[in-house]
Amino acid sequence: MIVLVIRTRKPFFKSQPGRLLLIATLLVAGGTLLMPFTPLATPFNFQLLPISFFLLIGIIIIVYIVVADTMKRFFYQRVKF
Description:
Elements: H1 2-6, H2 19-34, H3 41-44, H4 51-78
Organism: Leptolyngbya boryana NIES-2135
InterPro entries: ATPase_P-typ_TM_dom_sf
Protein name: Magnesium-transporting ATPase, E1-E2 family protein
């Protein structure tokens, strides 16, 4: 998801990504979440995780996006090119 944040100088919520980038990002995220439910789960010994884990990961991702966007703004204020 961080690719959608760092791809532009604008705040990530004010700039729409390209259609292919958005599709690729959603496919990777969806595939990652669905992997434990596929036949590949057995050979790789994947386990189902508790919902609390996904909530924690969601919070970490949100904080990471906010920090990355803030640092991106700070960087572009300091560096002009």
